[in-house]
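Quick start: read one record
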Amino acid sequence: MLSRLREANPEPKSELYWTNPYTLLVAVVLSAQSTDKGVNKVTKDLFREVDSPEKMLALGEERLREHIRSIGLYPTKAKNIIKLSQMLLEKHGGQVPRSREALEELPGVGRKTANVVLNVAFHEPTIAVDTHIFRVSNRTGLAPGKTPLEVEKALEQVVPEEFRLHVHHWLILHGRYICTARRPKCEQCIICDICKWEEKHCADASEGATAQR
C-alpha cells in the first residue's frame, strides 16, 4: 500500500504555505478546524510582514486578528499566537523547539500540531493523525483505532522505517483527494484492490492492480 503511494508521489509536501519553522508553526495553529486553502489565503500576506516571534509581537494581537479574520476561531487563534510568540522568545531564544514536549507547552499547540512541525520543518518521522489520516487508516485496515492517538500508535507499529518520513503526507493527501469522507473516489484509488473497506467500489476487477497504477 505504502509502496504504491510512494511511487505515485515520491516527495510529498505540505500544502500549507510557510517560509521557516516559525511561520510553519503559526500556519499549523491557524489550520485547526480550517482548510489549508483558507489558511494560505491569509498567510501569504501575513508572512510578508511577519516571519518571526519579534515581528509578531510588534504586529500585535489586534492587527493579527484583522489579518486572519476569515479563519474560524480567529480571536482565540490570534491570542494563542501572540502568547506562543512571547514564550518562544522567553524560553527558546526566539527559535521553534525541536521536541514534542516543548512544542506542546506552547499555547494552542497540541500533539497533532507538534507532530506536523517536527515532520515538516525538522524532517522527523512523526505522524500527525488528522481527520483524513484517521479515516484512511481505519477504512483501509492499515492501522485501525478508535482515537487519533490509537491510530498514531498503530501506524508507528506497522509502518516500516523507510516510509516513516512521508507516510503522514501520503495518507493525508490520499484522504483529502481520493478517500474522501463522502463519495470516496474508489475507482481512481491506486490501493483499492488491497483496501479492506467493505463498501469500496473499485474499477473493473479484471483490470487488476496494473490498472490501479
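Residues 74-92 form the longest helix (19 residues).
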